[in-house]
């Protein structure tokens, strides 16, 4: 059995560290913070940990809402989606995730762009 990205990067603790760093970055970004007003951040963080763990091959299946439905009310712009992606990529890299693993995780995120932006 091949080693998963999830195991290679350090499992749940590493994913939680990345997600916390990611949300710190997003919430400090004045372009993005408005999307999170009134949101239950602990719940969002938990869903993001679950999502990243899942796409990294961890022993977790993402059980959150359908991506299109979960984001439809936010009217997210493409520029803001891309800015969130930059924050996630930086959080991954700055917390020790290797280039190939960052690329694999970001490929999964980019695959969700159209549904999140309501295009499909």
Automatic annotation (TrEMBL):
Keywords, alphabetical: Heme, Iron, Metal-binding, Transport
Keyword Ribonucleoprotein appears in the UniProt entry: no
InterPro entries to which the protein is assigned, alphabetical: Globin-like_sf (IPR009050), Globin/Proto (IPR012292), Hemoglobin_trunc (IPR001486), Hemoglobin_trunc_I (IPR016339)
One example GO MF annotation: metal ion binding
Record bears the keyword Heme: yes
Pfam families reported in the protein's UniProt record: Bac_globin (PF01152)
UniProt xrefs under CDD domains: TrHb1_N
UniProt superkingdom: Archaea
Family (UniProt): Belongs to the truncated hemoglobin family. Group I subfamily.
Protein name: Globin
Native source species: Haloprofundus marisrubri
